[in-house]
């Protein structure tokens, strides 16, 4: 018996519409509809149904095994490859990076790992003027353009010595 058949049977027996079922299970109406029509669901959704409706639904919860420590876990997204443990996440990330750079060194054409796609956030550095205010006040000039500005000349207008 698939989850679709079992859930539809449960809904018809208890005369529950999709919205009420969704509230009962603690998930959105969209995943409920997906199960009802196409029998599509994620392990996390299956776990929520199991938590709400009991041990009959345990067989639909698919656990993944962590590559690093071997514990069972339920992935929260398709990108999650290890358990929730931070050490496992770091190990997996390092291994992925290492494999990527080995392939690059071997001359293979490879797609960047997910951690490489995102650019690192830039550190904020306030814009500094070419010259500090004390330097300017003590007589250093910004250059020709600054001199023109201070003399009230337009850009490109040059002083002509007669
Ligand atoms: Zn782990």
Describe the overall structure.
The longest helix has 20 residues, at 86-105. A two-stranded antiparallel sheet has the order 1-2. It has three domains: 3-62, 434 Repressor (Amino-terminal Domain) (Orthogonal Bundle), CATH 1.10.260; 86-117; 128-162, no CATH class. The termini are far apart. By secondary structure, it is mainly α. Helices cover 48% and strands 2% of the residues. The site of zinc ion (ZN) has 8 residues, from loops.
SSE order and pairing:
Blueprint: H1 3-14, H2 18-25, H3 29-38, H4 43-53, E1 64-65, E2 72-73, H5 86-105, H6 114-117, H7 133-137, H8 144-150
Antiparallel strand pairs: 1-2
The protein binds zinc ion.
The site of zinc ion has 8 residues, from loops.
Number of helices: 8
Describe the global form: elongated
- Biggest sheet, strands in spatial order? 1-2
**How many structural domains in the coordinates?**
3
Q: Spell out the helices and strands N to C.
A: HHHHEEHHHH
Cα end-to-end separation: 102 Å
Mean model confidence by pLDDT:
84
Main sheet characteristics: 2 strands, antiparallel
Rg, Cα atoms, Å:
32 Å
Helix/sheet category: mainly alpha
CATH C-level category of the largest domain: Mainly Alpha
Percent in strands: under 5%
Bound molecules: zinc ion
Oligomer: single chain
Proportion in helices: 40-55%
In the predicted model, the low-confidence regions spanning at least 5 consecutive residues are none
Q: Give the strand tally.
A: 2
Q: What name is given to the CATH topology of the largest domain?
A: 434 Repressor (Amino-terminal Domain)
**CATH hierarchy: architecture of the largest domain:** Orthogonal Bundle
